[in-house]
Amino acid sequence: MKVKLDLSGELDDQLPDSAVQAWATPDGGNLAQLVSSLPFADRVALTSVNGVMIPPDKRNAYILNDGDEVMMLPPIKGG
Question: Of 2, 31, 60, 78, which shows the fewest CB atoms inside 10 Å?
Fold first, then answer.
């Protein structure tokens, strides 16, 4: 199955545009598996699927579906 990745902040340039548009993930895979499969997994602070925020402790339970839009954000810095 394929999901669309929406990467923000410093994550924005971590993958080629073609990968962001259609990231392949196993059928029945969960959000935690998707995040951990990325080369920048240690920099993903927040995630949402189809506009719904999924906290880190709920990623294992969130099963992805074909066509889902997954947004990822790094930690926010600044003052």
Answer: 78
Q: What is the mean pLDDT of residues 48-75?
A: 96
- Region 40-53: mean pLDDT is 96
Overall pTM > 0.70: yes
Two structure tokens written together for 27: 């059928």
CA-wise closest residue to 49 among 40, 37, 39, 59: 59
Exposed/middle/buried for residue 52 (C-beta within 10 Å: 0-12, 13-18, 19+): exposed
Which two structure tokens, joined as six digits, stand for 50?
């189809």
Concatenate the DSSP letters of all residues of 7-66 into one string.
E-GGGTTSS-HHHHHSEE--TT-BHHHHHHTSTTGGG--EEEETTEEE-GGGGGG-B--T
According to the model, what pLDDT value does residue 12 have?
Answer: 86
